[in-house]
Design a protein that fits this description.
This protein is mostly helical. The chain contains 10 helices and no strands. It has one domain: Glycerol uptake facilitator protein (Up-down Bundle). The two termini are 30 Å apart.
Length: 238
């Protein structure tokens, strides 16, 4: 139960910071409106830093089904614990999305563009070509999981206590370099659970939750995470 709650709280923190940053940038009458991509990528990065510091010692701070499954594939996590971790991550992401909805409660009715409202909760491609979008998500999550394994394996980083910060900087770099084509989900729970929140919350003029695209930020990260973990083990023998 302690590990389950660790994943719930950690994933909720990640989504509160990340989706909160998106809301700040895109919703009408926000004081941070139009502040740009760097603000969004920084919000997600700082959310990951805080979440890993908060629950890393409790659950390992997976916060991402793609990472959990990838670790199980390479034998660094028990398959029997995968369902509970994924459930916790989904619950946490849903909770985080609801918190963001509440924090920006006055802004939903002031924002006419339904697409911007959906963007607060879930990703969408700049150019909608699902095979290309899938490749982007695979590449981004490959780099994320490969990078996390490399950082965690670094004894100096662990001894200095800087591992969570380095992981946050990794996500920041991925967002800046690879995030623009799809909005970089890299995490099935981060995208799917808030998309569910968008579908069920009473958001005025919210429009479609874009379920036609929803499989891409689920399948792509899982593939990319597994391949990234296998590549790390295969190339570096760790």
């Amino acid at each position: 139960m302690e590990q389950f709650m660790g994943e719930v709280i950690g994933t909720a923190l990640l989504v509160i910071f990340g989706d909160g940053a998106v809301a700040a940038v895109v919703l009408n009458k926000s004081k941070a409106q139009n502040s740009g991509w760097i603000v969004i990528t920084t919000g997600w990065a700082m959310g990951l830093v805080v979440a890993v510091y908060a629950v890393g010692s409790i659950s390992g701070a997976h916060l991402n089904p793609a990472l959990t499954i990838a670790l199980a594939v390479i034998g660094k996590f028990a398959w029997g614990s995968v369902p509970s971790y994924v459930a916790a991550q989904m619950a946490g992401a849903l909770l985080g999305a609801v918190v963001v909805w509440l924090a920006y409660l006055a802004h939903w009715g002031e924002t006419e563009d339904a697409g911007l409202k959906l963007a607060v909760f879930s990703t969408g491609p700049a150019i909608r070509r699902n095979p290309h979008n899938l490749i982007t998500e695979i590449i981004g999550t490959f780099v994320l999981v490969f990078g996390i394994l490399a950082i965690v394996a670094n004894a100096a980083a662990a001894q200095s206590g800087l591992t969570p910060l380095l992981i946050g900087l990794l996500l920041w770099g991925i967002g800046i370099s690879l995030g623009a084509p799809t909005g970089y989900a890299l995490n099935p729970a981060r995208d799917l659970a808030p998309r569910i929140a968008h579908a069920i919350l009473p958001i005025p003029g919210k429009g479609s939750s874009d379920w036609e695209y929803s499989w891409v930020p689920v399948v792509g990260p899982i593939i990319g995470g597994v391949v990234g973990a296998l590549a790390y083990v295969g190339c570096l023998g760790k």
